[in-house]
Amino acid sequence: MLRDKNLIPLSHQHQHALALCVRIDRAIQAGEVDLSAWQTEIDFLFRQEIDIHFRAEEQHLFPAAAQFPELRTLVNELVAQHVELREFFSAAGSRMLDAARLGDFGRKLSSHIRQEERELFEGMQQRMTAEELSALGTALDQVLEPASDACIIPSEATRLKPRRQGP
Description:
This protein is mainly alpha-helical. It has one domain (8-144): Four Helix Bundle (Hemerythrin (Met), subunit A), CATH 1.20.120. Helix content is 74%, strand content 0%. The longest helix has 32 residues, at 35-66. The radius of gyration is 17 Å and the shape is elongated. The protein starts with 7 loop residues before the first helix and ends in a 23-residue tail after the last helix.
């Protein structure tokens, strides 16, 4: 199903975070993990975009979805995941992530985003009227406005590197 235009700003932010997850996974696979650089980038992304993104979801998206009984369990799972993800972001901000936790963070964030996109957004689009989605989009836009529109450029240590070719 095509994404409703009112949910696209959240989907764009999801793409930014998924790109981070891919880069983390590739760095771990390559054994090239500069923990300080990754934690700096994760903390920056949280402060510039994800904290605001989470607030928009918690203030408007999740309550709108929870009006539908068949989405309530999913919403409760996603709220609990926000709590867990905030702990990872806090650990990154305090420079307390080791390589294993960095990998866990990337996997959990990716899984969370995919669940929102594939289950929550699809479920909401199937159940909400165009007017309800439009009102939700307006509310989301107001909360998301302070989020940075700047593209976060990875540092040399966190940049996606070409995969090494075999012998």
